[in-house]
Structure formats: structure tokens, C-alpha cells
Amino acid sequence: MPAPTRTLERPPSARDPGTPAIGGRGPDGTGGDALAGTPATTPARIAVWLLVGAITVLFAAFTSTYLVRRGEADWRVGPLPPVLWVTTGVLLGSSVALEGARRHARRGEMAGLRTWLTVTTLLGLAFLAGQLLAWRQLVAAGVYLSSYPHSSFFYLLTGAHGLHLAGGIGALLYAVRRAPAAATAAAALDVADPVAAYWHFLTGLWIYLFVILFAL
Amino acid sequence: MAVMHEAAHEEHKLGFLQRYVFSQDHKIIGIQYMMTSLFMAAVGGVLAMLIRMELGWPGARWGLAKWLFPGGFTGDGTLKPDFYLAVVTMHGSIMIFFVLTTALSGGFGNFLIPLTIGARDMAFPFMNMLSYWLYPPAIVVLLASFFVAGGAPNAGWTAYPPLSALYNPATGTGLAAPGSGLGQSLWLVSLAILIVSFLFGSLNYITTVLQLRTRGMSMGRMPLVTWAQFTTAILMLLSFPVLFAAVVMLLFDRHLGTSFFVPSGLVVGGQLVTHQGGNPLLWQHLFWFLGHPEVYVLILPPMGIVSEILAVHGRKPIFGYKAMVASICAIAFLSFLVWGHHMFTSGMNPLVGTAFMVTTLAIAIPSAVKTFNWVATLWRARIHFTPAMLFAIGFVSLFVTGGLTGIFLGSPAVDVYFQDTFFVVAHFHFVMASAALFGLFGGLYHWFPKMFGRMMDERLGKLHFWLTFVGIYATFFPMHFLGMAGEPRRYYSPQMYDFLRGLSGLNMFVSLAAFGLGLAQLIFAYNFIRSLFRGPKAEGNPWHANTLEWQADSPPPHGNWGATLPTVHRWPYDYSVPGATEDYIPQTVPVTAAVVAGGAPDEPPTTDLNSA
């Protein structure tokens, strides 16, 4: 029976049990033998869902105060700038375009991936421009941040959403550069998937905000 | 990892700035967090001494203090009332957000998470560096509030509006109190920066634990200290954004004319406020939705640290590992459901109050599970009374003392009487502040050799423990009686009402005890700084501990593990295994070489006890 060894230099063996399917990878994913055949979860895929969780809580806090405030007697809803219908459509279109990009990535068609990622980015920028236009229209109509509670919440919620979306555009620009340059389809998806998760979340978040601000 | 050779190579390549200042190495970042937090602890401690000066001898003249804090004292050396409130506010804010959260989560979390799970670094080292480097700017912004018109904020660490919301842009001071001016805005901005820093940190911690565990390190084999850090990171990720939302809305109210939190028809100083239509209670809900998980952000990491220390220095497996993990998770979950117990007196529907009472008392169950398991771990343990062990045992004592008064306060009928008295101050200083501080000290005495490669002085450590332990009880225990007698917290003079005059002797005693407690920390400062440079060199595993960090060098090199990552074969608490040659078996020792006493072995042991 060998004496207990305290060395760190144990060679890895196939019989080492208890290996988590996603463990054993160094910071750069090269520290261990990732199990072949299983789709590797990357740190970015996990981190993006954590980020989505944190932003969900942030907006839950914003909108819970909104929902409470709305219940009071002096509540009135401000005008709905018509351009918001357009921006909503544009943002939905950008999510569809992003799905197109991922379809191309799955088939390894890097040119198509680049095109559709670019289209997504441009639609995202168009959405932001539309939101700014909505703000200008409201200002022209004399509805300011401090005019009444609904207007305060409108600027706060659209502004906070817009800032997060601007971050998403930064992520898209990163993906436009990196994803089509990847060597394999899987590597391209490793870049595109987390960005897509974030972007679709922001689309869903906007629908939620749009509905509670004006419809319900 | 081919990266290892690169990493070793890189260490020679990196300049001083990249290695020690803008470092992406989790160990350096952890130490940076720790050092900065200890500096802030000194600042917060000095503020505590100012509070006790005023409460012990209200209106007395302090020549020296006048010289140290020129703005805070009148010409004849008495502490100004608004400066007193600023000091109370800043003491709480600094200790909670800038000392305990940053030291326990930022310091120990960064240093220990990759080491205890066998990773080379965090999942996102650059984001980790950003997380630390948002912390000093937040400190600068916070402390700058002392030097602006109106001075530091004085609405308390909870910053309740409308007091914290009303601001006169013309003078730069608050409407109701001077500190609600620019100082309050700086406080809010500082917290916003710090929250972003915490967000980066917790994203990193969670991803690292989920992704970078080494071969064989299943979640069920993680040391409890890592479980605690992991759960804390989830708590932070899900609770701090709520405070961020509240901070943004309060800043809007202050500077952009919105009325989220300021009600209509408010008259302050004979002047009708122009805001209308807000609700100050919304702030309280948002604040405490963060605020209560926050106290568990402070106490869960010490719970993990203490579990580690009790096992290592008691030479026994931790009692009830799975129950410990389950109770950490239960506490974390329940902490989101109890915020209302801070608001029993806010006009809350009694039915809602009762619901919050039930969830609050439910937290006593997992807390008691942990306490029983700690005591059971100590039962018949071969205790080495090192400073780390003393502080860990002290933690259990403080946690029980403070936890018992929590049961009083969790009941609305009792809380209505105790709300905002010194009874509450005593409660949270025991259960949360002092207990977390003991976890911090215990952890420092325990991991100092790993962090700096040197040993701290044991005799000074023991002296520090006994003076601190006695000092804490002498300072905070009498506060229960002050509170029961009705002394309110945050008041400038505890003797402004006749019925409180009889308490002046007790207040003086508390103040003297607090000064002694403060002075005792100088022993720690001396020991810490001296050991950094003069302490005897530490071996890799001075406590004969099992967890992975102790199998690395002291201090571990860049990249932590030579060429190969360690492989884990057993749970972390194989201490005093019957039949084993030594009283500890590191996690890296294969099952065939020595039997597993608890937790999940790799495979059914092929050897019987005697052959090991």
C-alpha cells in the first residue's frame, strides 16, 4: 500500500470519478481535458444569464415602484408617442435578424453571420434613434421628466432600457468582429450566443415595459 | 495548461504596476480589497469613537478632537449636532458597505475561491481588476462628502427620504438638515459605483465556481467557506440591483425634479416643497429588500470561515456538512422574504407584519442548525487554541447572543417598543457587526500565512482576542439595557429627556469600554504590519489543513498550481481519520492511499481501515 501522497502532480486518469462535466478548465479553457463531444458551457454563457438576472432584478425594482404608484388616485397616463410602435417593430426585427445570424453560424456560413449581425446592430441603432425621437416628441408636447409621475417613470424606464441596449450594441459590435472570424461554427456560436441571449432579453424587457407603461 | 508556462513566464515579464497595482491576479486583488477595507475599518472605527465621545459626555469640550476635525466642532470644542449625525451615518455606511462587505466578500472571496476549487484564477480576470478599481473611487467620492457644503450626509445609513431627498440647489445644503445637500448626493453616487463593483465581483465568483472547478471537485466536495462565498455572490447579484434602482430614483428626485419618494404637500422649515405625488415608503421597501440580504452578505462568509477554522483547528470533520450547505442556501433564500421586519412601525398592515414575523422567525431554524453543528464540531475536538480558533469560537458566542435578541425584535408587538432604540443597536452590533468582524479577524489569522507567506504572532493574537472579546461584550451588552430604558438611537444627546438622565453612568461605561475596544485594535494593527515584514516564514501548510489552498506554496505563485492542476479525491474534512497515519488527509490524496471518513469517496474503498 503506498503511503499517502501529498503531491499535486497526480496524472489525470480516465477513471478519476467525480469530475464535473464542466470542471477542470483553466481560465482560458485549456487547463484540463474538456469532455469530448459534450457542448462546452463557456464562462460567457453563464455570465450573460447572471447579468440578465441582475438586470431583471433592477427592472423589477423600478417597475414594482411604478406598479405601486399607479394604484393611487391621482394617477394619469401620458400620451403615447406613435414612433414607439415603429421602434417596437424595429427591435423585434433586430431579434429576428439575430436569429438569422445564429442560423448561419450553426451552418458555418461566416459571411451570412457577419451580414445578419450587422443588420441586427443597425436595427439596434435605429431603435435607439427612435427612442430619442420619442423623447423629443414628448418634450415638444411639453411632457418633461418632472411633469407628472407617469412621465417620470416613462423617461426613467426608457432611459434605463436604452442604456442597457447601448451596452448590447457594444456587445454586437464585438460579435461582428469576432464571431465571423472564428475558426469553427461552435467557436462562432460561443461568441454569438451570449450576445444573442442578452439582446433577446432586452427585446423582451422592452415589450414588458411598453405594455406596463401604456397598455395595462 | 500550456498557459502555465506562459503564466510563469509572464510573472517575470510583468512590471510592478501590472503585478501589484493593476493586477489581474485574484490573490493580489483579494489582498488589495483586504488592505483597503482595513484602512476603511480604521476610518469607521475613529468615527465610532467620536460617537461614543458624544454619547458618554454630551456637550463636553474636546480640544484635541477639535484640532483633528476642524469643521465638526464648535470653537470651544463641542461636537456639532449635525456633525454628530454625519458621523453616525458615515460610521454605518463605511462599516457595512466599505469594510465588511468588501473585506469578507471582496477580500476573502477573491483570494480563496480560485484557490479552494483548484483554479488558476477567476473566470474573468480583467473584470475582476475592474471590480477592485471601482472601490477606491467610491471611497474617494464617499469621503469627499465631508468636505462639501453642508458636510457629510446625516440621514443615517438607510438614507430615508424625504430627509435624504430634499435639497436646495442654491446653497448646496439640505432643506431639512445640512448634510442632505451635496454630501448626500456624493453618498448616493459612491454607493452606485460600489454596487457596480460588487456586480462585477459576484458575476465572477459565480461563474468561477460553476466553471473552473478542478478535476474531482464536485459541488459536494467544496469547502464550506467556498459554498458561503458562492451563495453570498448570488445574494449580492440579486439584491444590490434593487438598491441601485432606489439610488438612481433618489438622485432623480434630488437633482431632476421628479417625485418618486417625496409626497405632496410636504412643509419643511415653514416652506412648501414643490415635489408632489411620491411615496417615501417605497424607498424603505427598496432599501430593505437589499438591506436584509445585505446583512447575510456580511454574515454568510464569516459562517463559512468559522466552519473551516473550527474543523482545522479542532482536528475534526465539520459536523453535518450537508446540513451546513443546506442551511447556507436556506438562509440565503429566506433573506429575500424578511425585509418587512425593518418596517413594522411604518404603518404596515398587521397581517403583513405577521407574515414577515413568520419568515423572520423561520430564519432562526437554519441559523440554529449551523450553531448546533459548530458546537457539535467542537464536542470532543482536540482544540488548538490559536488566535484563529479563539475568534471562531468568539464568533459563535456573539452570533448566539445577537441571534437571541433577534427573536425579540422579529415579533411586531415587541418591536413596536424597541424600534430605533439602543436595543436594536445592541442586537445588530452583536449578530451582524461584531460577529462578522470576528469572522474577519479569524480568517485573517488563519489565512495570513497563505496570503503573505509569514506567520502572525500568536501571543499578540491571543491578547488581541481577549481584549476584543471582553471589549465587545462590555461595549454592546449594556446597550440592551439602554434600549429597554428607552434611549433612542441617532440622538445627539441621550440626556435631552429627563427619563434618560439616569442612564449617563451606563453611557459613560459603554464609552470607556468602546475606547478600550478601539485601543485593542492597535495590537492587531501592530501584529499585522510587523508580521508582514518580520514574521517567521510560513510553510505551505502550517495548520495541517486539507483544503486545496494549503497544498499550494505560501504565498501561491501566479497561476497557483505548478504545471498541473490538482486533482481532488475526497471531501475537505478528513481530519483525525481512524487508522490514518496523520490526523489530516488533504483533498488531493487518492482514496486508495488513505480512506475517506466522510463525504463522497471516489469509489467504494478497496482497502479496509487497517491497511491504510
TrEMBL record, chain A:
Alphabetically ordered keywords of this record: Membrane, Transmembrane, Transmembrane helix
Pfam families per record: COX3 (PF00510)
InterPro entries: Cyt_c/ubiquinol_Oxase_su3, Cyt_c_oxidase-like_su3, Cyt_c_oxidase_su3-like_sf, Cyt_c_oxidase_su3_a-hlx
Main subcellular location: membrane
SUPFAM superfamilies, sorted: Cytochrome c oxidase subunit III-like
Gly residues bias (residue ranges): 21-34
Its membrane topology: Multi-pass membrane protein
Example GO biological process: aerobic electron transport chain
Top-rank taxon, per record: Bacteria
Positions of transmembrane segments: 46-68, 80-101, 113-133, 153-176, 197-215
Start and end residues of each Heme-copper oxidase subunit III family profile domain: 45-216
GO cellular component: plasma membrane
The protein's name: Heme-copper oxidase subunit III
